[in-house]
C-alpha cells in the first residue's frame, strides 16, 4: 500500500519476514524470544496475527536477526519510508560471515556503543570492549582493526538506531502533525537509550570538528535527520495543516532548536529540563509550522 509517498506492507507480509528471521537464526524460537526480552507466548501470538508487534519489539527483532527494520516492515533496505534512508548504514554482517559471526559483531558494536556513551570515546579501550563481551582483544581487532574503526561504526550504528526507531514508531502515523510531534518526542534526551544516543552524538560532533575524515559521514548522517523532518513538513503542507513557508527553512530552525536545547539539557544547565525542551519545541511547531 502506498500512502503519502510511503510504502507500507501488510501485517501478514511483516509476519512472514519475522518468520524468515527466526528460520535463519541459530536460536530456537523460544531462545530468540528470550534474547529480545519477549515472552514466547506473545511472540507466537504476534506471528499468528492475534497480537501486533510493538515498535520496540520490531527494533529488537531486527537487531538480533541482523536485518533492518525497513526490510522487516517494507521488504527492502532501500525503500523510501517515513524516515530518510541512511546513506551509510551499519554493516549487515551476515553477508560477510556466519550467523555466529554476525551475532558476535553485533554484540561488540552494542557493547562499544554503550561504553562510549557512558564513559566517553577517549576513555574506552579495546580491552574494555573485550571485557564487556567476555572475549579477547584479538577478537575485537578481527572485526574492528583499530579504535578509529570502532568509532566510525559506532556512528553508523547510532544512525541505524535512530532510523529503525523512527520507522517503527512512525510508519503507521499518516497525519503529518502527529508524526512531527512524535519526531520531536523521539529527539528528547530522556533517561535511557535516547540520553545515551545524545551522548554519542555529542562526542561525534567533537571528533568531527577535529578529524576531517569523519565529516562526510557525519554530514550524511545529519542530512538524513534533516530530510526526515523536511519530508514530514512537506507532507503536512500537502495535507493542508502546515503553513506554506519553505520546508527547508522551517527544518533548519527546528533542528537548530532541538540541537541547542538538547545540549543544554544533557549537560544539566540549570533551569533546563526535558519537559521544558518539549514545551518549547511544541510551542514552535504550533506557532510557526501549523496553519492557523
Overall pLDDT, averaged? 85
Low-confidence spans: 1-9, 87-98
Going by CATH, the homologous superfamily of the largest domain would be Tetracycline Repressor, domain 2
| Second-tier CATH architecture of the largest domain | Orthogonal Bundle
Morphology call: globular
Largest sheet: 2 strands, antiparallel
Q: What percent of the residues sit in helical stretches (DSSP H or I)?
A: 55-70%
Level-1 CATH class name of the largest domain: Mainly Alpha
Structural class of the helix and strand makeup?
Answer: mainly alpha
User: What is the end-to-end distance?
Assistant: 31 Å
Kindly report the CATH topology of the largest domain.
Answer: Tetracycline Repressor, domain 2
| Beta-strand fraction estimate | under 5%
Protein name: Transcriptional regulator, TetR family
DNA-binding region: 125-144
Pfam family, one: TetR_N
GO molecular function, one term: DNA-binding transcription factor activity
Short description:
With 292 residues, the chain is mainly α.
Structural features, described:
The chain starts with a strand and ends with a helix. A two-stranded antiparallel ribbon has the order 1-2. It has helices at residues 11-24, 29-35, 40-48, 55-65, 69-74, 99-119, 126-133, 137-143, 147-170, 176-185, 193-210, 215-239, 247-266, 274-289; strands at residues 2-3, 6-7. Mean pLDDT is 85; it is low at 1-9 and 87-98. α6 (99-119) crosses α11, α7 (126-133) packs across α8 (137-143) and α13 (247-266) runs antiparallel to α14. By secondary structure, the chain is mainly alpha-helical. The protein contains 14 helices and two strands. The chain has three domains: 9-77, 434 Repressor (Amino-terminal Domain) (Orthogonal Bundle); 99-153, Orthogonal Bundle (Arc Repressor Mutant, subunit A), CATH 1.10.10; 173-291, Tetracycline Repressor, domain 2, CATH 1.10.357. The longest helix is centred in the C-terminal third of the chain and has 25 residues, at 215-239. InterPro entries: BetI_C, Cro/C1-type_HTH, Homeodomain-like_sf, HTH-type_TetR-like_transc_reg, HTH_TetR, Lambda_DNA-bd_dom_sf, Tet_transcr_reg_TetR-rel_C_sf. It holds the Pfam family TetR_C_6. Residues 102-162 form the HTH tetR-type domain. Keywords: DNA-binding, Repressor, Transcription, Transcription regulation. It comes from Actinopolyspora alba.
